């Protein structure tokens, strides 16, 4: 029995410091035959010993994969996570080869420069930086690299502005962010504007003590997958110091705050917004100009500061200190502007120009080429009658984007007939007017590449008329009214992905327009917005008009006007309202303790109960409905008889919107009572929805004229 205990204890692998699992298991295999020599059948022969070694090797490889997955895979991630490339066991997650273009003397590298925003975001947040302070960035980065990089015996291209040369990494200094390398012989390199020999390269490496920055290394492609994480980590390091880190971050006064939240996230978001054409070209140019000026000013300030002696009281040093304070103030002003532009909510503040300093107004005429007869017509029909005053000047442009970027408050853009291609979003921060000189099909603006939105309006009063917009790959819409008022008249909107979006605080007036082709809703109306649609055609979309849920107590009720629109041939509903399901709403109400019923609320407010057929009569917003009997002429509507089956959706839409609004008001009254407001001021509850829904026609919509989407 003692022998058995001794045998079992010997069979348990005990690993010494520095000993691998494989070594421990192999050494243990030699002692499996413990005990007496009588049980000869228990001895491990040579053949079984070889099999055991193979099993141990397989076990060791599996353990390495597990460790690698644990380092790079979040437990909360599911299979379709954007960071699935960290998991090497998943099909299709290996890094791809980046084939070298041109000179084939150098081997291919890994393709790492096409990572998505979320992939970089997660790498910096979860693995590289976490919640470190600015002063801790280098230490956190070194710790991250030490866990991920292969320490030696891998090849890479040392890439500089002058040459690319093949080297082998023999050691990594993580704190210095440098690698010790040796030249791969025979020499394999590609030079730009110079000649490079093996002797000259060795001399250069000796001068650098055989050390090169990790950011300048690109790992040579290897199909085994052993160096995928090394290549990926170097890409994150390279990208960080090229696009995220600033020279002045080390001297940040807010060192007690999370560096990732304050700096990394907004700068990363801005980089991808610029990459995906979500930021106007003028704003991009201004940002990089500010960045270059701030970098130059910081270098000048640092040089001046380093030249001042702390113990000296000479007049020259005193002058230098005054100059240094002036440069410091200039640098801080530039840094503040950069922070504003890096903030997605504030960056458009700098895009607003306001009135022109001279006080005049400009008419911007857009045309690639024009004829004399077109100019004569322009002068006779437009410029002469409307803009002949002394305050107007005329400026000519070849592209609509250039004209809009050059506008100040009150300017006018006139676009002559033609087909204009734009490659970035058209942002309108000032109150201007954009009109096509001709029919919409004659004045066409087409967006070719991908971006958040096509036309983005934040101006107080913007008007667009007689223009056709053709959209490709816009994520957020062919037109997005973020704030201010946008008036569209006689325009054609040819969508490919999403349609018109009216954000909270936005005000859209859309008259006599034609919108079609959206893979989502033709028009999306957010809570708190104002949307007036008269005489439009909305067709061949996924949904015609989508009204976002406004039932939450914090949301403001939208104000909607829909008159004489023809909503037809949409795949789903003509109009759809997104709202919580009855079960979800009941849970929300039950969560509020001691929430009074509708009947109790009426009693407490001293109102008379009026019940009809068991239903409680409640106050609802006033519905303002235009009809054909109105005495004043209505320019946008024509009174003609429409079959009832085409207009029956109007009443259904009104009933649903009013019911949702009334329910919201009851919840607000309940919330006020919880806060101790026993007699609520009617003005506090006057978020009444101005609803004018009249004579809209609904034809051949796949699921009917009106429906609700419950969540």
UniProtKB/TrEMBL annotation:
<keyword id="KW-0963">Cytoplasm</keyword>
<feature type="compositionally biased region" description="Acidic residues">
    <location>
        <begin position="591"/>
        <end position="602"/>
    </location>
</feature>
<dbReference type="InterPro" id="IPR057508">
    <property type="entry name" value="SHCBP-like_N"/>
</dbReference>
<feature type="domain" description="SHC SH2">
    <location>
        <begin position="119"/>
        <end position="347"/>
    </location>
</feature>
<dbReference type="InterPro" id="IPR039448">
    <property type="entry name" value="Beta_helix"/>
</dbReference>
<dbReference type="Pfam" id="PF23762">
    <property type="entry name" value="SHCBP_N"/>
</dbReference>
<protein>
    <recommendedName>
        <fullName>Right handed beta helix domain-containing protein</fullName>
    </recommendedName>
</protein>
<feature type="compositionally biased region" description="Basic and acidic residues">
    <location>
        <begin position="603"/>
        <end position="613"/>
    </location>
</feature>
<dbReference type="Pfam" id="PF13229">
    <property type="entry name" value="Beta_helix"/>
</dbReference>
<dbReference type="GO" id="GO:0005819">
    <property type="term" value="C:spindle"/>
</dbReference>
<feature type="region of interest" description="Disordered">
    <location>
        <begin position="585"/>
        <end position="613"/>
    </location>
</feature>
<dbReference type="InterPro" id="IPR011050">
    <property type="entry name" value="Pectin_lyase_fold/virulence"/>
</dbReference>
<dbReference type="InterPro" id="IPR045140">
    <property type="entry name" value="SHCBP1-like"/>
</dbReference>
<feature type="domain" description="Right handed beta helix">
    <location>
        <begin position="452"/>
        <end position="580"/>
    </location>
</feature>
<dbReference type="GO" id="GO:0008543">
    <property type="term" value="P:fibroblast growth factor receptor signaling pathway"/>
</dbReference>
<keyword id="KW-0206">Cytoskeleton</keyword>
<dbReference type="InterPro" id="IPR012334">
    <property type="entry name" value="Pectin_lyas_fold"/>
</dbReference>
